[in-house]
Amino acid sequence: MKRLLAFGVLAWLLGGSAQAQNPLPRLLRADSVLAPVARAASHYRLQILYTQIRRDKQGRPHFRQFRYRVRPREYFYPASAIKLPTAVLALEKMHQLARQVPGLSSSSPLRIDSAAYGQSGVLRDTSSQNQRASVGQYVRKLLLVSDNDAYNRLYEFVGPAALQLGLRQHGLRHTVLRHRLSVGDQDSTARRTNPVSLFSDSSLSRALYVQPAATFAGRWEQGPQRRRTVGEAYLQNGQRINQPMDFSARNATTLADLQRTLQAVLFPASVPRQQQFQLDTLDRRLLLDYLHQLPRQSQWPHYPAAQYPDNYAKYLLAGGAPGPLPEGARIYNKIGQAYGFLIDNAYITDSARGVEFLLSAVLYVNRDGVLNDDQYDYETVGMPFLRRLGEAVYQLELQRPHKQ
């Protein structure tokens, strides 16, 4: 934390009546790492959403939100950031099923079969202590290391129709979930979901719930972005296509929806009652634990520290070269990284210093304008920017009163 305390964000950023004003524009201008990106914010498709949290005398949180170039109609590919709402909706479905079927829970052993082209089954999960898959285990893997297969299995469990309905019911009007990740999902395969069974124990001898294969025949939600083309060219099967890449059939969201999801998990009472996620106590605890837990702290699944350092998938405040998190800081977050887009959606807290805030950001770092060529500026532009942005806002928070 000494390095953070030495980081120079001028005290005048909080001077005068700045407490009631948006601090982000001046904060971005004041820093040598942030300013070059901010000056070309349109080029980098930069968006930032910062929510201050103040506790009253009873400890209840109050929120004040500041935006920098937040544009719901400007498309960004959400990549793995989209996994958080999927995980929460999967746990909500388990809660609903458990109320109807005694003995069911998110830890119930799960078997996935295949029934159509492109599908694959799951009988065992060696990352689990009982060698069986479960909704809870997929949530752990999704949150700890952003496991793509875990997301795909939860997509199959909930199903595209229920995902769309669930998003709208919880006020996430601009989020679209319409395909699996990294398996080449096309419209026809994304509409079909596998048969799923949940069992009473790891022997898989007695099924408590059987969900047949299904095909979604409805209309996909479109989201607010009318123009969903990115870049100047892209590679496809080794061939260069000299036109922007079309994302109209891809997942979509907005920065506000991402932060709203995280806030609804962490602070349920801060969203309208009818839009709160319906989770049992253990599953909400699972989300809270694994949103911040470091991969090396997990036994089942197990992740070696050498491959998964503490700052793995912690871009804001800690992104970049492998290393520890700042002393005292705890980061609850979900990141995304693909096609030149970098996203982090985080709640950062340091209880010893009375710091807590929500910070979400996205930027596009693709200097050559070509997608699918793996030549992105993640390490030279994206990660340094997100790390410094987290540091700058953290320093801002240190100088701000947090209790009434």
UniProtKB/TrEMBL annotation:
Keyword entries, A-Z: Hydrolase, Signal
Known catalytic reactions: a beta-lactam + H2O = a substituted beta-amino acid
The UniProt record lists the keyword Metal-binding: no
Molecular functions (GO terms): hydrolase activity
Gene3D superfamilies noted in UniProt: DD-peptidase/beta-lactamase superfamily
Its EC number(s): 3.5.2.6
Domain of life of the source: Bacteria
Protein name: beta-lactamase
Record's keyword annotation contains Thylakoid: no
Family: Belongs to the class-A beta-lactamase family.
Organism of origin: Hymenobacter endophyticus
